[in-house]
Amino acid sequence: MTGGAGPGDLPPPGDHPFLLAIKPLVDAMGGELVAPGQATGDDVVLSWEGRDLVAVRLPHLSDSLDHILAELERRHGVPLPELDRKTKQSVVRVLEQRGAFSVRHSVETVANALGVSRFTVYNYLNRENAAKAPTDKAAEQGYRQ
Questions:
Q1: Longest Cα pair distance anywhere in the chain, in angstroms?
Q2: Coil, strand, or helix at residue 34?
Q3: What is the rounded distance in angstroms from the CA atom of residue 76 to the CA atom of residue 112?
Q4: Residue 6 in contact with residue 29, Cβ under 8 Å?
Q5: What is the mean pLDDT of the chain?
Q6: How many C-beta atoms surround the C-beta of residue 67 within 10 A?
Q7: I need a labelling partner for 89 at 20 to 30 A (CA). Which of 69, 112, 120, 137 fits?
């Protein structure tokens, strides 16, 4: 965020409660706040009381995966390759829940970040899906009865 007085500039962060409210969300998704006058076609311009206040520049999907991996590393407090197997499995579960594996080459990216093979990541994913399957089948059978 920039703080200036020009017409395309954002107000200083302390000057508007809306900017303070959305900044943690934008940071968490790896986005960037830009002045409305600097918005491009893919940016989302947000208005407050009828006035364009800020634009949110969303990250590319591949950048989002890197951002999520960095956030998970910060959350765990150690480099991802140093996590134990069970924690790495939970990281893969979180990534799957967040749709990370819909990005091309994501399994390779995750495997490199965790310090494991692609085969291991697929095993973690298969184990998670197998654990869900009995619940899904039981619910499906209960629904049909």
A1: 67
A2: strand
A3: 17
A4: no
A5: 83
A6: 16
A7: 137
